[in-house]
Amino acid sequence: MINKSAHELHSLLSSKRVSSLELTEAVFARIDQVEDKVKAYITLTKEEALRQARAADARLKAGNNITPLTGLPVAVKDNMCTQGVLTTCGSKILNNYLPPYDATIVAGLKSAGAVIIGKANMDEFAMGSSTENSALYPTRNPWDLTTVPGGSSGGSAAAVAADEAVLALGSDTGGSIRQPAAFCGVVGMKPTYGRVSRFGLVAFASSLDQIGPLTKDVTDSAILLGAIAGHDEKDATSVDLPVPDYRKALIDDVKKVKIGLISNLLGDGIAPEVKLAVKAAAEALAKLGAEIVEVELPSFEYAVSTYYLLAPAEASSNLARFDGVKYGHRSGGTKDLLNMYYNTRREGFGPEVKRRIMIGTYALSAGYYDAYYLKALKVRTLIKQDFEKALGKCDVLISPTAPTVAFKVGEKTADPLAMYLSDIATIPVNLAGLPALSLPCGFSGGLPIGLQIIGRAFAEETILRVAFTYEQNTKWHTQKAKL
Ligand code: GLN
Questions:
Q1: pLDDT tens per residue across span 204-234
Q2: How would DSSP label each residue in 61-84?
Q3: Interval 192-210: pLDDT, tens
Q4: Which of 117, 177, 208, 308 has the greatest count of CB atoms below 10 A from its CB?
Q5: How far is the CA of 272 from the centre of ligand 1 (A)?
Q6: Which fold has domain 6-254?
Q7: Which residues are responsible for catalysis (predicted)?
């Protein structure tokens, strides 16, 4: 039962062949079995989950107010506020933080009748690509426990891949949903900037952050996106556009769809087996009737450098609020305020977060602002224009999600630049605010490879249609990690 998709389980639940309580208990039994190895969660909320499952069963029994999520177990990344439930962001500085409110998307899940299993592990403040920057412990990849699950939403992706949750939510600032989805062989979608409310998501880089689904298949991605998308008056950046029924976009047909294969993401630095798998996916889509053309987006060369000025600049400002006064950890024993700030931040933040705060503060400082921050903003516009040109000619663009399959635990921890390059294909999409999805398109050495599909702003439906067609006509998504 626990390895089924959300839409399969929804029919079992609504026809009363399974109860939400049985399902939720089965997921917790699975967690007991494998969590020691995977470490996907920071906090499990079993009692509350069982209570929510019973409430969902009552709702299913009464037969009204049933949504596609009613009774389904969901994991939530630990940077989304959950009222009264520990929300650490994978950081020591928030090791005791109990939010007084729910993030809008968490409140939405609850009112849809979903069952929240717990809070998923992550790189500290979502800074990282392997979940090794979690202050608690690293998460492991269910396909091979000696490799990383990707990051920063590694806990969410691993939980879905290991059947420790049916669905999960992650956040994506530079690839943190799509890259772990690729590494763990699941489907991950970063919606258009503004499509999903960020109220109650602890901010990393506010002009880039977006919440999105991690799921077992494309249909589940459409369902979960539909449940979280929409305008929120508490988030001024959320857009007031109607939310389509994304399931209607799940059409097994790509005839007349024009797909641009991003040629400069199939060059140096991309592993040969990844290139092969992505080219094979393009051929498969061509056989299904799509028109494939090669496109070049030359400014991508500057995307990683641009991101590593803008994201740290925003982070240095956003993280100023963690000073021991209102939130989380406070250093004891200091007599004056300034040293309390210093010590709290010294003790509370890990090395990668400190590195970002320093880079960001430097990039924003008087005298360097024009040379770095402002210049990066201008390059961001060039990257956007490259996308506009390519997406003016094509309905969607495709590329590898990540340059390699999952790497070994510890392989890149000593070399931040090598780690940053894991996001070479995902970062440009955040800089342009566009939607993109990753889904499995092959294996290398027993590890999954991800295909990235990028669309026009608010055209998640086109992405879903291409992804669904590819999935219906291939078998990659039917393979499971053998733990
Ligand atoms: N890996 C990138 C970083 O470290 C992206 C992280 C994210 O998307 N949250 O910043």
A1: 999 999 999 999 999 999 999 999 999 999 9
A2: HHT-S--TTTT-EEEEETTB-BTT
A3: 999 999 999 999 999 999 9
A4: 177
A5: 24
A6: Amidase signature (AS) enzymes (3.90.1300)
A7: 77, 152, 176
